[in-house]
Amino acid sequence: MLRFLQQKIQAWFTQPPSTESEDELLDIPKHLNTALVKRLEDSPTPPLYQQNIQDAIATAVETWQNNIEAPNHLVFLASAVEPTAKIINESVQQWESPSLEVITPLKDLQRPLNPRYIKKQICQALADHSPIKTSDFETIIQTLPEDAKQKRKTLIIIPALEQCFLRCIGGWESIEYLREVIVQNRDCFWVIGCSAWAWNFLDFVCQISAYFDPIHNLPELAGENLEKWLTSRAENLVNLDQPESSNNDPRPAYWEFIANQSCGVSSIAQYLWLQSLRLKQAEVENLDLDAINFSPSPKTDQRLNVYSVKPSLPSLPTLTNFDRYILHAILIHGIIHRHHLSHTLGESESQIQTRIQWLLKQEILIIKGVNLSVHPLFYLAIKSDLENNNFFIG
């Protein structure tokens, strides 16, 4: 039976057959790993996320248009290591609603060097769009119930609320201002994306949940969701065998293992999947792997057969208390510039530089452009460590 499975399934996305040892499997070349990471970063977010968001928006908007007293907002919370802005933006872009004007005033928002100007930056961005009233709220004419469906035609997207403030003295005045604009502009419907960590912090400092309801959490991805999403991303780079119709197919168990280990979070799952990929030594020993060009769509004969082993999350090295403060601040903001990180910690950049370099060396932190973020593979371990050391978490 093992030999039959080996021939038919070719070990795609399962542990190597017992007749082989992991010594006969090789890590995939760095440039292939880089190509796969790039493909994942550039590809659409999981369809289940998008469908969940689109369905929730459609229901909430219909209620808002037909009920003058209905909430004019919808909040979506995600893990601190999920690309919240990309998920929200893509979901709305793929949503077919010709009757609504969609505005994303804060799509490319970047915190100014001085956090005191965040509020001004947000005010200017909103003021550029005529449907939004940013001041003199007492002059707003309230819509009559019979006119609601005709007048309520504007959808405002705030894709990443965690980028609209900084955890420092006066750093969340921008959120209090934005909150007031949303409450007063009832003829606009506001879709807000935010990390759960940022939302919990804002709830503590300015009771944001008292003003916004309902709140939706992104769904956990099951094994079958991850399989369809991730394999479709890689199929033009490496050879992916089609699953056999067999009760002995071990792939579903493999994908459920990934789903369980990642807690259904897409960003964690994709790195676990990449970590599991291997090449069979016997198939590549006569190849110059460095010479193979993994273009976006390499020729079929240039694609390698890829196998997998059981992945595992990395162990978290021993952290100092200062490391924890750094990681906690980064998780609240999702991604953050070093200058802003030093500001929120109340330390100079030179004082935090040594620990940042150590965290980067351990691959606990990664660099995205000019910003820092937590590597998804370490997220769950960091979350547990911070909770055990009495930090509030998302």
What do the pLDDT scores average to? 87
Largest sheet: 5 strands, parallel
Euclidean distance between termini CA atoms: 47 Å
So how many helices? 16
Question: Which CATH top level class of the largest domain fits?
Answer: Alpha Beta
Strand line-up across the major sheet: 3-4-5-2-6
Number of domains: 3
Q: Rough shape?
A: globular
Uncertain stretches: 1-20
Helix percentage range: 40-55%
Please provide the ordered H/E string of secondary-structure elements.
HEHHEHEHHEHEHEHHHEHEHEHHEEH
Architecture (CATH level 2) name of the largest domain: 3-Layer(aba) Sandwich
Alpha-beta content class: alpha/beta
For this structure, the CATH topology of the largest domain is Rossmann fold
Which strand-content bin applies to the residues? 5-15%
- What does the radius of gyration come to? 24 Å
- How many β-strands, per DSSP? 11
Protein name: MarR family transcriptional regulator
Question: Top keywords for this entry?
Answer:
Arc Repressor Mutant, subunit A, 3 domains, 394 residues, single chain, alpha/beta, disordered N terminus, 16 helices, Rossmann fold
